[in-house]
Amino acid sequence: xxxxxxxxxxxxxxxxxxxxxxxxxxxxxxxxxxxxxxxxxxxxxxxxxxxxxxxxxxxxxxxxxxxxxxxxxxxxxxxxxxxxxxxxxxxxxxxxxxxxxxxxxxxxxxxxxxxxxxxxxxxxxxxxxxxxxxxxxxxxxxxxxxxxxxxxxxxxxxxxxxxxxxxxxxxxxxxxxxxxxxxxxxxxxxxxxxxxxxxxxxxxxxxxxxxxxxxxxxxxxxxxxxxxxxxxxxxxxxxxxxxxxxxxxxxxxxxxxxxxxxxxxxxxxxxxxxxxxxxxxxxxxxxxxxxxxxxxxxxxxxxxxxxxxxxxxxxxxxxxxxxxx
Length: 325
Ligand code: MN
Known about the structure:
globular; mainly beta; 27 strands
C-alpha cells in the first residue's frame, strides 16, 4: 500500500533514549482517517507514526482499513528503507513488485516485502470485493537498509491455541512459537482472536508493545485489567511501553486484536511519503530517482507506464520532530 496523501508531511522519528526499558505506560494513540486515493478509494485508520510516539519497536507505520467494498487499485509506487507487512482480514489482494513477484495474498497469509535500497509494487483487488486488513511498515536498521529488495509470502504461520483464544504469529516470536518471516530487529506481530474469558500472553519485557483492535467492540475487551480504551474515546492504538513480562486480555465477547512489539528502535528516521530515510538529501534523491524512472526502483510488470507520481516535497527542508512521550 502507498501513502497517497497528496501533500505528505515529513515524519522525523528521533531515536529512542537508551535505557528506556522497564517503563510500562498506557496511552491510546488516536487513529487518523486518511483517504488512500481514487474516486471512492479506501479510507484507512492510521495510528503510526504519531507526532509524539512515532514508532513501537521498529514498527513505524500502522494502517487498518475496511470492511469496505471501495475499489483498491494502488498503482506502482516506490519504497525505501522499510519492510511492508500486508495482512488481509477479508478479501484477496494481488501483489506485484519489481523483484518479479506476482501473488495473491488472502486472509491468514502474510506478504513481507523488504524494500532495502529501493523497490516498487502495486496492489489491486477485484472490484466489489469486501476488503479489510492491516498494512504495517517495519523500519530497517542501518546495516541492512541499503540491501537488495526481496519478497516473501508465508501461508503456513505458527498458531497459538488457548482455552479462550487462538492466534497466529505473523512476525517474530510469541511464547514458544516463531514466525519464519525474515526481519532485522527483534519484532513481534500476532493476530489474537479472543473468546469470552482471559488469555495471558508472555511478552519480552525489554520490548515495547501495543494493541490494536481489529474486529469486535472495544467495550468487550480489558487489557491488563483496564478497558482497551476509556468509554467514549476515539479508536486508536493502545501503547503499553516496555517492561511487561505478560499481558492479560479479558474478553466479554469475541474480539480480534493485533499485538505489536519489538526492541525500541535506536536510530533517527526521516519518513516522507513512501520513503524511510535518515536525511533530507536521501529523501530528495529517492523522489528524483522515482520521478526519473531510475533503475533503483525497478519495474512492476503489467501496468505499462501507469504509476503513482511522487507528491511535491514541502517547500522547506525536512526538519526534525521531537519525541515528547
Ligand atoms: Mn506500498
